[in-house]
Write a structure and sequence with these properties.
Elements lengths: L1 E4 L1 H6 L3 H16 L3 E2 L4 E4 L6 E9 L4 E9 L11 E10 L4 E6 L1 H19 L6 E5 L3 H13 L4 E5 L3 H15 L2 E4 L3 H5 L4 E4 L18 E4 L12 H5 L2 E4 L2 H7 L1 H9 L8 E3 H6 L12 E4 L4 H18 L3 E3 L2
Parallel strand pairs: 1-7, 8-9, 8-11, 9-10, 11-12, 12-15, 13-14, 13-15
Antiparallel strand pairs: 1-16, 2-4, 3-4, 4-5, 5-6, 6-7
Helix pairs in contact: 2-3, 2-11, 3-4, 3-11, 4-5
């Protein structure tokens, strides 16, 4: 029997604090070589701009598989603002059983936010209590919710070119977290006093500048998944330790790193570490709490597998979802 989980059910089955811990363990497994995950495969329509992307994964030891399929179109939006019209995660095991099919559009955002929160837990100053969100769509809202679940935030500042999106983020995040959200008139104003800065935009060009940031700030760059796109300026990358999910994905998709590398702003010896390394030996990186750091997300398959397992186990325990005989 296959458990089918719709959009509402998967969201109801999220425990954000627990999810961050599980995603951290998944990143350790990746660094330790217990994960097989090919790079994201994309198929485009040159006529319409339609896209199909796939991201499979295998986790050894637990003998689990997952595969995410995402369909999107540049001219279409879901009413909640997401550009991926449909995203589905298939979750199964090596005995050939398909255990679950689940709505994955927002899960992709929450798993990214969970990894971002893991990075901030270890890299942001221990006293950090102010988060800036640049880009107030669904990814920005997920980022604020998960960060508030793992950090003692006192205030969230937010900016979006679309004021209505910023207002929606304020309403939603204040209701779900109880943390005050202040909408700012510019990205600079939002960033200036924040210890943690999260970028969740669709921009192709930098949306922050190094001179806006505090000396020990931590930046999470969650958008820009192409070699020629970026959200972070070269000066910020050059002055910061860079923390990533996967070196292979970094070299394939991360313009935030590849553009300053091509410009000569950084060299091959620039400090770059996987989140799995951070989780394996956090004391080794303790000095980075007082230095600028950037977490660059590309999104990797193990995150989809972990969040699928997280949701599946909670749905089973709660008796949620629809069982079908495939």
């Amino acid at each position: 029997m296959v458990l089918v989980l719709d959009r509402k059910t998967v969201l109801d089955c999220l425990d954000l604090r627990a999810l961050a811990g599980e995603i951290g363990e998944g990143m350790k497994a990746l660094t330790e070589g217990r994960v097989v995950q090919p790079l994201r495969t994309r198929v485009f329509s040159a006529e319409t701009g339609g896209l199909l992307a796939s991201l499979p994964c295998y986790l050894a030891g637990e003998e689990l598989f997952s595969a995410k399929l995402g369909f999107s179109h540049p001219d279409l939006r879901h009413p909640d603002g997401t550009r991926h019209i449909t995203q589905i995660i298939a979750y199964g095991d090596t005995e050939g059983r398909l255990l679950s099919l689940m709505h994955g559009t927002l899960l992709g955002m929450y798993r990214t936010a969970a990894c971002s929160a893991v990075a901030a837990r270890y890299l942001a100053p221990e006293s950090a209590s102010r988060l800036a969100i640049i880009g107030c769509g669904p990814m920005g809202r997920a980022e604020a919710e998960v960060m508030a679940a793992v950090r003692p935030l006192r205030c969230i500042t937010a900016f979006d070119l679309n004021r209505a999106a910023a207002e929606e983020l304020r309403r939603s995040v204040e209701a779900s977290t109880g943390v005050e959200v202040v909408i700012c008139e510019s990205a600079e104003a939002a960033v200036r006093e924040a210890e943690i800065v999260s970028l969740a935009t669709t921009s192709h060009e930098p949306v922050i500048r190094r001179e806006w940031l505090r000396d020990a700030s931590h930046v999470s760059a969650l958008g820009a998944h192409r070699k020629d796109h970026r959200e972070v300026d070269s000066a910020t990358i050059a002055g910061a330790g860079l923390f990533i999910e996967s070196r292979e994905a970094l070299m394939a998709e991360a313009g935030d790193y590849l553009i300053p590398l091509g410009e000569g702003a950084i060299g091959a010896a620039h400090p770059v570490f996987e989140i799995g390394e951070l989780l394996t030996d956090p004391h080794r990186f303790s000095q980075w709490r007082e230095r600028p750091t950037v977490f660059k997300s590309t999104g990797v398959g193990i995150q989809d597998l972990v969040i699928a397992r997280h949701v599946y186990e909670r749905a089973r325990a709660a008796g949620r979802g629809l069982e079908l005989d495939f």
